[in-house]
Every structure is written in C-alpha cells, then in structure tokens.
C-alpha cells in the first residue's frame, strides 16, 4: 500500500463509532422520551444515548432502547445561517426515497419545535454496517475493491434514475439550469471573498457560463456523494445506506456524478482520494470504466467529463476561497482552515487544465 494510506487508521479512529455525549451536546431525555412515545411507531423505552464521532455539521446521536437502536440528527444549538444545517431537507429526501427501495435509513419523524430539544431534529433507523474512509481500501482484495466501487457507481446511477414527482419531491428544487445557477452563485461568492487576482479563475468565470453542456436529465442530486457518506453491508460489498443529504436538491445528475469522479484525481491522503495510485493494480475501475458503467446503467449519453471536472473544481475553489478570506480576516484560525485555504490556487490551476482539455481557447 502506498504511504499516503497509512493515515486511514487515524481517520477511522477519529470518525467511526460513538463517544459519551459532551456536556454541551446533552439532550433532555425526559422530553425526548415523550416525543418518541408520541411519534415513533413501536417505541419502547427506556432510552440511553451516545454521540457519533466525526465532524458532522449536524450533531448525530445513537439512541438505544432495550430492543432497538435509532439515530437522531439535529441542528446545532444557537443562531444559524438561513439555509445551513438543513436537517429537514435530509429528512424529506430520505422519506421520499425509502419506499422506493433505494438504500436510505427509514425515517420515523421530524420535530420542528425547538422547545423539545433546543433545535430541529429528526429520527431514523440505524444502518448497522461498515463505514469505509480510505479510498484505497487497504484491507480489501482487488476483487472486493471492484465490487465496492461498482456498488458506489450503481447506487448513484439508481438515485439519478429516481422520479422526483412520483415520490413527493417535485418541489425539492429547481430542476433546470442547475450548472448555470451554481456557476453564477460561486462566481459571486468568489469575487466577494477574493484576496488576490488569479487570472485563470477570471478566465473560468468568463468561459464556464458560455459553454454549459445541455442538461440531458433532471433528477435528485445528493451534493456530497462519496465513499465515507455511505454505509456498506457488514459482510457484503453493497451499500445499505446513503447518508448526509443536507446538500441534496434537484438538478443535473452529471454534475453530481462528476463530483464523485473527482476522487480519482484528488490526492490519496487516507480519505476518498485516489490520485497517484495505481487503480488498475488495486482492482478499482479507471475513470473511463466508471463512466462507462454509469452510462450503461442510466442510459444517458457519454458526458463531456472534462467540462464537468473543470466546473466542479471551480466550484470547490469558490467554496475554499471563502474559507481563505475568513482565515485572513482572523475568523477561521484553525490549522485545518489554513491548510484548506492553501488549496485555492492548485484547484484553480487544475480546473483550468480541464477547461483547456474541454476546448477552452487561450
């Protein structure tokens, strides 16, 4: 295994499993029990609980009773930005998809009354399986890796084939002109937080909106679909639950799929990135094989992946430029934020290279 994958154990220690609930995150168990009794079919107390590890933006708890385990996901306490921490959005997506057989947890109820626990929350079933963080899958054989990645691609294809109108999600977002809206949004955000002139970024801001490929299909897009946002079966290499739906909306499925495929180019650092690894030797599908599998399952035309890679990297650069501005202003002083902010220029350069490959003239 390459050296970069040695960090995987640290990630798994840091992110997988539960810890005792810190004082700042404790819940009123009497109020929670009353809510469960009124809203959760088949509930029988008493409740005990712990908190899942990891850096989720929405605190997530394991709720145990003598017969059943549940997961509770809530907004952070305190004042929030208007569209951030959208647990109600997560709840709506999973509630719509669950009856179709798509692998998501079963939802039991959404509580919008902050008087119960101090913030909005929802309860879902617990997916008892494996969380995999390292894209290189160091503990798997080549055949197992192939199965795992095939499941990752096939599950995403199945999501994109879901019909929003048939599952109560026709009002889940604007389905058309998805990339145009995203490019406009992140161009504005980038300019608002710009800290230095990067000529390649200015060129992308000019070129991308003029060259958007026709949106072949509209569907549910996850927004952050990657290896560590799914749960695999304990003994089989298939996905039993897709998690973290807070960025989900309606839009262009290829934008969503190409975001997943960026992991083939992102550095292999013990997370989902595969850049620099010999994927063929590992048994992981190549970019071309992954695209062919997705196209075969969806029936979509072969997408112009270079354009979509340029678009996704541009979008990431816009997001991280906002973090960089906060680092410079002193409002995001963590070492992690500083490290992330150093990624803006390399991301822009990578996006520019893909744009050139997609036909952008000098």
Q: How many separate structural domains?
A: 2
Tell me, what's the shape? globular
Total number of strands: 11
Q: Summarize the amount of helix as a percent range.
A: 40-55%
The CATH homologous superfamily of the largest domain is named Aminoglycoside phosphotransferase (APH), C-terminal lobe
Order of helices and strands: HEHEEEHEHEEHHHEEEEHHHHHH
Beta-strand content bin: 5-15%
Name the structural class.
alpha+beta
Task: Tell me the number of helical segments per DSSP (H or I, 4 or more residues long).
Answer: 13
Strand line-up in the sheet with most strands: 1-2-3-4-6-5
Assigned CATH class of the largest domain: Alpha Beta
| Quaternary | single chain
Going by CATH, the architecture of the largest domain would be Alpha-Beta Complex
Keywords:
six-stranded antiparallel sheet; alpha+beta; 362 residues; 11 strands; 41% helix; Phosphorylase Kinase, domain 1
Written overview of the protein:
Helices cover 41% and strands 12% of the residues. The chain is of the alpha+beta class. Helix 8 crosses helix 11 (305-329). The chain has two domains: 17-126, Phosphorylase Kinase, domain 1 (2-Layer Sandwich); 133-357, Aminoglycoside phosphotransferase (APH), C-terminal lobe (Aminoglycoside 3'-phosphotransferase, Chain: A, domain 2, Alpha-Beta Complex), CATH 3.90.1200.10. It has 13 helices and eleven strands. It has a six-stranded antiparallel β-sheet. A three-stranded antiparallel β-sheet has the order 7-9-10, with helices on one face. Strands 8-11 form a two-stranded antiparallel sheet. The two termini are 40 Å apart. The protein is globular. It has helices at 8-15, 29-39, 87-97, 114-117, 142-161, 178-192, 199-207, 253-261, 279-282, 287-298, 305-329, 335-341, 344-357, and strands at residues 18-19, 48-52, 60-64, 69-74, 107-111, 121-125, 130-131, 219-221, 230-232, 239-242, 249-251.
